[in-house]
Amino acid sequence: MKLLKRILRKIAENLESVQDSAPLILNEAVNFEKQCIFIAIPKTGTTAVRSQLRQQGTPLITNAHLDIMQVKDSLYIYLLIEALGKNRSFPTDKIPTDDELRSKATSIFGTFFKFSAVRNPWARAVSLYFRGEGVQVKDIMSFQDFCKNHFYASDTCHHPTLHKNQLDWLCDENGRLLMDYVYRLEDFGDAVKEIQAHTNGRLKLANTSANVNRSSLSRKYRELYTDETKKIIASRFEKDIDYFEYTF
User: Fold this and answer.
1) Helix, strand, or coil (residue 215)
2) Is there a contact between 72 and 29 (Cβ–Cβ < 8 Å)?
3) What string of DSSP letters covers 90-118?
């Protein structure tokens, strides 16, 4: 614990000059003003949502695609860094204790609205294949070869979280879903209304799209599949297909 605090104090010192011009934020996934946590699974239409939720400031963790447990664990780290190096008076009576920081992190995670999006695994595989950022593969292998080697939900990302399925991003280590609301990208129009209702009007999202790859054939994904590759995706991502009731 002492070593961790020394490391965090050093990070806080390095960030102090930056924070003078821009406040420290945890990550794009967490909006403290709107009291929400958005888990951005890659290639599920997250850019449009993240652009509306993003707070101004310098992120402690720049990778936008954190899973729910990574966000949960980082809340305490963020609050601890925010508290370090802030004592400017004597007696020291306004600085939170470690127990108070941990209690606050637990309270934030428990009360903030936690939501996410998922996508049809067959369409998502095509989107990953044609992606224009991260690890690009469409010019170095066929779609058939891509399907044979596509094992993880984020394996073409620069910062992969090695989850087999999209659902794994949203659960704890025991497989328990930790989200308040999960919508299918295909139903985003209805989802924005339900999100507003779930948050009593606090969270109003526009039904827009962003980061659209015009060269991707994901809208016509069925045309790319053979019987073999269709079965590969069905077998590999069976958990998502069953849980979210997707069909080809």
Assistant:
1) coil
2) no
3) SS--SSPPHHHHHHHHHHHHHHSEEEEEE
Q: Which residue has the tokens 């609050």?
A: 79
DSSP-derived letter for residue 199 is: T
**Both tokens assigned to 161:** 């979280």
Helix axes 68-83, 98-111, angle to 10 degrees: 140
In angstroms, the CA 60 to CA 74 distance is: 9
Count CB atoms within 10 A of the CB of residue 198: 16
- E strand or H helix that includes residue 227: helix 227-236
CA angle 43, 46, 47 (to 5 degrees): 105
String of DSSP letters for 163-178: -SSGGGGGB-TTS-B-
Residues with Cβ within 8 Å of 12's Cβ and at least 6 positions away in sequence, in order, are: 81, 84, 85
Per-block mean pLDDT, blocks of 10 residues, the chain (248 long): 64 57 87 96 91 92 92 96 84 86 98 97 93 86 94 82 93 96 96 96 86 66 96 97 96
**Residue 138: Cβ within 10 Å count:** 17
Cα separation, 155 vs 162, whole angstroms: 7
